[in-house]
Amino acid sequence: MRCVLVINPAAGGGLTAKVVGELVDHLRAVCEVRTVMATSAEGTEAAVRRAVADEADVLAVVGGDGVAHLAVQACAESETALALLPAGTGNDLARGLGIPREPVAAARAMAEAIGCESRRRIDLGKVAGTGWFATVLCAGFDAATNARANRMRWPRGQRRYDLATALELAGLRQQPLRVETEGKLLDLNATLVALGNTPFYGGGVPVCPGADPGDGLFDVTVVGEVSRRELLRILPTVRSGGHVAHPAVTTLRASAVRLGGDNGWLAFADGEPQARLPLTVRNVPGALDVIDPV
After folding, report:
1. What is the pLDDT of residues 126-162, one digit of tens each?
2. What's the rounded Cα separation, in Å, for the pair 234 and 232?
3. The model's pTM
4. How buried is residue 236: exposed, middle or buried, by Cβ count under 10 Å (0-12/13-18/19+)?
5. Are 93 and 84 in contact (CB under 8 A)?
6. Domain range spanning residue 168?
7. pLDDT above 80: residue 186
8. Cis peptide before 155 (omega within 30 of 0)
9. Could you tell me the superkingdom of the organism this chain comes from (predicted)?
């Protein structure tokens, strides 16, 4: 079994040599490991694509959701299985797949799964004209918050997203949104829309709490027209998934979705910018092979 281990040493605020050594030791107990240190997005993208082109059996990546997103682009519709060793701030894909959110514990779980050949194929989302995503595609208020947080250099971690949320709330405006699925058409003024292949975004927020990456469908969450005060009431319930019961929230399930409307919204997927609406997204069943913790 050949494994390429791609490590972002700056992940998690900086991985120590001891932690890196433990990651490698766990994987070497069950497979042949080639280790690559990637200190930039460009270096990571090149490393993961090279691993798949070389037909590695397993691509293991250490980092946050940004690194996971690059690995998904490389592994999609290939025979190389993806093993996640989360070491970022959000770790939403790892959370959605039940992987321990500490890198050494994840390496131990991944090594055990590789040793007993525990893997599964999961669905991915495909954005027409751009790329793949594994977690959530969103547009509107939450995407604007994400974009603002990405521009900020202070504070770190979850507090950055909390501050970005507060700043976006100050200028809250609903926009026209059209959501088209196989059996439904919504035209409304909306605050946000989210398409979930897995439940979580933003560091563990279950915006699409029922999303299952093995059912061939997106769970779609649309928040309609609400006041700033009402949105402040809704936001705390999102942490528990209770927001889907609010009268302003509509939920759908679909294998393909077209998002439009005269809103100028920029969609984000896996926390990364994609394209401005209108855009079409489809669910591709079984597009990604992942190492499945036992």
Report:
1. 999 899 999 999 999 989 988 888 788 777 766 777 8
2. 5
3. 0.94
4. exposed
5. yes
6. 132-286
7. yes
8. yes
9. Bacteria
In the listed set 93, 117, 141, which residue is the last one of a domain according to the structure? Answer: 117
Supply the CATH number for residue 15's domain: 3.40.50.10330
Cα–Cα distance between 67 and 103 in angstroms, integer?
Answer: 14
The angle, 0 to 180 degrees and rounded to 10, between the axes of the packed helices 103-115 and 17-28 is 10
State the chain's maximal CA–CA distance in angstroms. 56
Question: 86-119 burial string, b = 16+ CB within 10 Å, else e?
Answer: bbbbbbbbbbbbebbbbbbebbbbbbbbbeeeeb
| Secondary structure tally for the chain: helices H, strands E | 8, 16
Which two structure tokens, joined as six digits, stand for 191?
Answer: 């605050």
Do residue 191 and residue 95 come from a single domain?
Answer: no
Which residue carries 């077209």 as its tokens?
258
Residue 126 resides in a domain: no
> CA 165, CA 201: separation in Å to the nearest integer?
14
Tens digit of each residue's pLDDT (9 = 90 or more) over 160-169: 778 888 888 8
Q: Is residue 165 part of a domain?
A: yes
Strand bridging mode 32-37 / 2-7: parallel
Residue 201 within a domain: yes
Q: Does residue 293 have a pLDDT over 90? A: yes
The rounded distance, in Å, linking the Cα atoms of 289 and 190 is 35
The interaxial angle of helices 65-75 and 41-53, nearest 10 deg, is: 30
Report how far residue 112's alpha carbon sits from residue 99's, in angstroms, rounded to the nearest whole number: 12
Residues 167, 169, 175: CA angle, nearest 5 degrees: 125
Q: Is the pLDDT of residue 282 over 90?
A: yes
